[in-house]
Amino acid sequence: MVTYGFAQESSSTFQKRVELALGTWISVGDTRWSHNASSQGLFGNPTSRLNYADHSTNVVELTAKVYLRPRFFGRVQVGGAHIGGGRLTDDDFLAADGGSPSLRTHSDISGSGLWYVNADLGGSLMTFAHARGHLDGFLGFQYWRQKHNAYGVRQIHCSAAGASTDLDGGTPGLDPLCLPGDIGMSHSVEVISNSNSWYAFRVGASSEYYLLRWLSLYGSIVLKPINFFTNEDTHYLRVADGELQAPSFTMRGIGFGADAEIGATMHLTRWLAAQVGYRVWWNRLINGTWENHLADGRSASFPLTEFQSLRHGLTAAITASF
Questions:
Q1: What is the pTM of this model?
Q2: How far apart are CA 155 and CA 108, in angstroms?
Q3: 47 with 36: CB under 8 angstroms?
Q4: What count of Cα atoms within 13 Å lies in the side-chain half-sphere of residue 133?
Q5: What are the chain's domains?
Q6: pLDDT, tens digit, for every residue of 208-235?
Q7: What are 19-35's pLDDT values in tens digits?
């Protein structure tokens, strides 16, 4: 009787034409980048490192899966969210401090957001014995965009070199990187806006295995062997001759990444199911360039030494099959 039950589920799966899912991803994120301008003499390697760590991000997600034939499918997944909070840590490094931050500040992340699109084509690779489940493979594309707005500045650390080194190369201490005891700036003032986008080729596998007729486990692993990214960073306090340089910095490069998800499905009826799980997305830099846009219209380029985005958290969804 158990074998018959699994076979019935497998047969009904092949008769489905469309699956629609409404879900959420309760996630936290971490995006960080750094560059190396040590060739300019005064600066260390890295020269600057920014870390955007956000939280309270409840993604709303819609997924549509269409069976083109019994063993082939197309799938589109769209998600978006408001980022409710977090912290930006901004470190600047001078050569004189030998790798320790010369200046560290904190700012609050607010009024930010993210959205993404996954589009895949796939098919069944195997069916498990006694119709207990299946293994699928797929190819696809991912677009993932995040924007972080940072407000206020709280100075956490200012080194002796940061307070005394003149950035213009003139009289020591005349134009220092920071001032000891500086109280920073009010939370109401927007200081930085950062937008990054990833464009990734995906190749992956997913599987479902029935423990009981009404309960199954699922999982997926996705490799992103090549992706491209862009990043625009505007420092609103970086004003020259009364004009804002927007964007202040731009970054471009190539990278790689991986996604993974695991969870359980409760089959409420033949056509309705509920899922809970955990998901991780990760992208990182292979090679890239950081470009500084100057007030006179010129630009200066330096190596981008680090850029990565990580997002992970609990997922939940309701799926209807037709």
A1: 0.91
A2: 12
A3: yes
A4: 16
A5: 2-321 (2.40.128.90)
A6: 999 999 999 999 999 999 999 999 999 8
A7: 999 999 999 999 999 99
Amino acid identity, residue 248? S
For residue 298, the 8-state DSSP code is -
Half-sphere exposure of 79 (CA within 13 A, CB side): 27
Structure tokens at 297: 């219209």
Reading the block at residue 123, the tokens are 């098919």
pLDDT at site 283: 98
**Joined tokens for residue 142:** 């991912």
The SS3 of residue 247 is coil
Residue 241: alpha-carbon gap to chain centroid: 35
Distance CA 110, CA 106 (A): 13
Task: Report the alpha-carbon distance of residue 158 to residue 120 in Å, rounded.
Answer: 49
8 A C-beta contact, residue 50 and residue 194: yes
- State CA 202 to chain mean position distance: 15
Give the CA distances from residue 18 to residues 66, 68, 122, in Å, rounded to whole numbers and listed in that order: 5, 9, 14
Note whether 259 and 241 are within 8 A (CB).
Answer: no
Report yes or no: 15 and 57 within 8 Å, Cβ to Cβ.
Answer: no
Q: How is residue 228 written in tokens?
A: 């491209």
* CA-based nearest residue to 306, from 292, 288, 282, 281: 288
Contact 150, 108 (CB under 8 A): yes
Q: Give the separation between CA 158 and CA 179, rounded to whole angstroms.
A: 7
On whether the CB atoms of residues 110 and 151 are closer than 8 A, the answer is yes
Whole-number Å distance between alpha carbons of 85 and 57: 8
